[in-house]
């Protein structure tokens, strides 16, 4: 059974569109460490024109602005901000996930994560709010306090909160470091105030030392950093994989991610199949 809720994605903390397109474009170019000449060559323009746009002496055409945004890897939400700042209408819709127009997408994601059972899988938005989850995820959340399970569920909060999964994660320092580094990369890309606030919150959670003897007696040669988690006296191991949509034309779709937890050893595979067989 899946849990599906409306997406409540927050806007980025970039300056308002009334700041003007030039400063916004320059900020993205500097963030990506691309020179005006390099950007001009990529976008079939000139360094002089890029300079004029950034200083407000020239208004970029809509298609050029979109090409510049593409070559700077500007997130879809922020491309709309650039367009509005330049006096154009937003190009990309932001359709609520519970809108009838999203029926095919919702049902497709639900079938995907249900088909992944008995292994855990979930769908999250740009700030890690859980939009859908399969029975493998709900199994891992057994016994968590109601305060953490109240909507909107947040995957980072559930994982790293001292009353959440954190005490059960046997390699918490390593897994926590991986998750925080992942969030740092996303903050650098998206400039999201809600994501930054979430990062500051979970980063401040106290971290208990790993209990002696919690690690497996014999090291296992994992092919990627696993999450080692205790469940009913057993150590389960998972490798995380995250998928996003190619070339999204909607802000909501651009900010969706499907995370699947692949069992990293035969014992975990056997145990999960025994639970849901």
TrEMBL record:
Span of domain HTH cro/C1-type: 25-79
Pfam families: HTH_3, MLTR_LBD
Entry superkingdom: Bacteria
InterPro entries, sorted: Cro/C1-type_HTH (IPR001387), Lambda_DNA-bd_dom_sf (IPR010982), MLTR_LBD (IPR041413)
SUPFAM superfamilies, A to Z: lambda repressor-like DNA-binding domains (SSF47413)
Record PANTHER family: BLL4672 PROTEIN-RELATED, BLL5781 PROTEIN
Protein name, entry field: Helix-turn-helix transcriptional regulator
Organism name: Streptomyces bobili
Lineage, top ranks: Bacteria, Bacillati, Actinomycetota, Actinomycetes, Kitasatosporales
